[in-house]
Specification:
alpha+beta; 8 helices; 28% helix; binds flavin-adenine dinucleotide
């Protein structure tokens, strides 16, 4: 496995912002992953795993860590009976393709979530009333101290949250699905994608929902829309004119621009609705949300 230096995180995140990772590697087997974790532990270097970077804001100044992207066997997918086994780096699109060809339903909800199996576990990603917690049986979790399989309960999956230890790597995920014809799956996916395109900025550079939905009659998007934030811009980052819970890279955005918009949105939601919005997006590097 080759270690790379200075890889720009802007190339690894869907919003397209972020400075360089001090070290970067693409392990393709469990042995390579373990070797990478040992290498980092020997240097007291933190390990951060990125999937498709679809829910990530990385510091403009860069990240002092070994950043990993899982490939090869660690991104492979296979079906065994009603189980779909996916490497932590397997994309949801590839998993869905295998599920459909194998006549297994239950993964359709993930058709518009542009992430990986490991990122889905970390975030307990979900849509249309379903989430990872409903289909994951267990996940193989690896750290420099060792690894093993964790059950869904042990993963502690709740709304866009898991109890996965910080810096642990999800190397493999086992999903239990249910028999469904490829035609039925295709029809459901087409319907969900059409719904998505009608309501969210699917053709822009974003990192998905900025905030979790608060315990309030208004979702985060409607609340920020009521604050008059649609189209509001700081530097190259803009609150989506289509859905106010998305931030678009409108050209030349930096992570600092996005963070300033997030702070502004939180301030307005607090002042106008008395609500403390909690961010869903994950942060990489020495940055924080105020
Ligand atoms: C257009 C768009 C639409 C979206 N729609 C939805 C939606 O409907 N529902 C939803 O829940 N999300 C949605 N998202 C957000 C995002 O796609 C999900 O959170 C997704 O699960 C993130 O997966 P990822 O692999 O890209 O993770 P990343 O964004 O790369 O990382 C997210 C977190 O997971 C960690 N991580 C990634 N891989 C691993 C691994 N193998 N092991 C351990 N930790 C890991 C990272 O360190 C980070 O903390 C959307 C994003 C976009 C851009």
């Amino acid at each position: 496995m080759r270690l790379e230096e200075g890889v720009p995180l802007s190339k690894l995140t869907t919003i397209g912002t972020g400075g360089a990772a001090s070290a970067f590697a693409r392990p393709s087997t469990l042995a390579e992953l373990e070797a990478a974790l040992t290498w980092a532990a020997e240097r007291h270097l933190q390990v951060e795993t990125v999937g498709l970077g679809s829910n990530l804001l990385a510091a403009d100044e860069g990240v002092d860590a070994l950043v990993l992207r899982l490939t090869g066997e660690l991104a492979a997918v296979r079906i065994e009976g009603d189980l779909l086994r996916a490497g932590g780096g397997a994309t949801n699109a590839v998993c869905l393709h295998h599920a459909r060809s194998g006549g297994l339903g239950g993964f359709e909800f993930a058709c518009a979530i542009p992430g990986t199996a490991g990122g889905g576990v970390r975030m307990n990603a979900g849509a249309y009333g379903s989430d990872w917690a409903e289909i994951v049986v267990r996940a193989r979790v690896v750290t420099a101290a060792g690894g093993g399989w964790l059950s869904t309960d042990a993963l502690g999956l709740s709304y866009r949250h898991s109890e996965l230890p910080e810096h642990a790597v999800v190397a493999e995920v086992e999903y239990r699905l249910t028999p469904r014809t490829p035609e039925q799956i295709k029809a459901t996916v087409a319907e969900l994608i059409a719904q998505r395109k009608a309501t969210q900025p699917t053709n822009k550079r974003t990192f998905g929902s900025v905030f979790k939905n608060p315990d309030h009659e208004l979702g985060a998007g409607r609340m920020l829309e009521a604050c008059g934030l649609k189209g509001h811009r700081i530097g190259g980052a803009m609150i989506s004119p289509m859905h106010a819970n998305f931030i678009e890279n409108a050209g030349g955005a930096t992570t600092a621009d996005a963070l300033a918009l997030i702070a502004e949105a939180r301030r307005l939601a607090r002042e106008q609705f008395g609500v403390e919005l909690e961010h869903e997006v994950r942060l990489l590097g020495a940055i924080a949300i105020t």
